[in-house]
Design a protein that fits this description.
Length: 163
């Protein structure tokens, strides 16, 4: 399942590892886990939930019958990139929009916009576009951190990886 939450990308992956370490090894309730992540990262509880779900998308946390628990695996950059592309809603589409020529975040959004679900557009006809522009910018920043894209002075480009 592809999940939507995408927290703001940090400057380095250290913040992701801080979020990962905040998820308990012994399962805790969703509220407890969100609270732990929020406290560790000094963010709101809602932002803590976004980080928890994002960690789940990347295979760093999993939901079990008693709540959430930290996954003890030690994924490398390639594992994180693949999980990002496969499990985060919009990541694949944003990366598919990129090519060898640098593209601005706005140009990537324009290519991505047709994939925004209709219910999102109807839910907030006046605000969906700015929310999804922000989401595309976040996805691009995470793609750079995971080495799926590169940022140049002229925009973003795809980074090719062998299968």
């Amino acid at each position: 399942m592809r999940r939507k939450p995408v927290p703001p990308a940090p400057d380095a992956l250290d913040r992701l590892w801080d979020a990962h370490r905040a998820v308990p090894l012994i399962p805790g309730s969703e509220d407890d886990c969100c609270g732990r992540v929020a406290t560790r990262l000094d963010v709101t509880p809602d932002e803590g939930r976004d980080w928890l779900v994002f960690c789940q998308s990347l295979g760093l946390a999993r939901e079990v019958s008693r709540g959430f628990e930290r996954v003890r695996d030690d994924p490398d950059q390639d594992d994180l990139r693949r999980a990002f592309e496969e499990n985060v809603f919009g990541a694949r589409e944003v990366l598919d929009a990129l090519n060898d020529e640098p593209m601005s975040a706005d140009a990537v959004f324009e290519a991505f916009a047709p994939t925004v679900p209709n219910w999102e557009r109807h839910r907030d006809p006046e605000g969906w576009e700015s929310r999804w522009r922000d989401r595309v910018a976040r996805l691009l920043d995470w793609a750079v951190l995971f080495d799926a894209a590169a940022r140049t002075s002229d925009g973003y480009v795809a980074v090719e990886h062998s299968a």
